[in-house]
Amino acid sequence: MSRASTSNWSAAILKDAKHPAGARLYLSWLTSKEYQESMVSQFSVRSDVRPKEGWGTVFDYPDTDPTAFSRWLRDRAAVEEFRNQITFCIGAPKGESPTEDAFPDRP
Fold it and tell me: What value, to the nearest 5°, has the Cα angle with vertex 83 and ends 9 and 85?
């Protein structure tokens, strides 16, 4: 897996990606200053791109921490608790797995 990371964002390209050069090109475009400045309703992942008028950075809003998700994922007990809550509310997933072809050896 090829990884790009800064303090504000991270991305990965799977090591067996069919078109890794295309994936790198896409990530370069997606994180380019020109594209980040053109976004209308999202926070920029770049610290050198100023927020749109009337907006702050993602860190300026209370209870917003874009780095918290990766920390939460490492807390397997919390993830399992959330999974159980979702299963309780809407039921267990049904039907064919969308990842069965990608991961045939996994349950």
Answer: 120
* Rounded (5°) CA angle 45-48-50: 85
Residue 33 has pLDDT above 80, yes or no: yes
- Averaged confidence pLDDT in the chain: 82
Residue 17: count of CB within 10 angstroms of its CB:
14
Residue 64: count of CB within 10 angstroms of its CB: 12
Sorted by sequence, the CB contacts under 8 Å of residue 7 that are 6+ apart come out as: 67
Contact predicate 13/24, CB 8 Å: yes
Helix (H, G, I), strand (E, B) or coil at 60: helix
Q: What is the pTM of this model?
A: 0.52
Alpha helices in the chain (DSSP H): 20-30, 33-38, 68-74, 76-90
Rounded CA separation 105/90 (Å): 27
Distance CA 76, CA 68 (A): 14
pLDDT average, residue stretch 5-26: 80
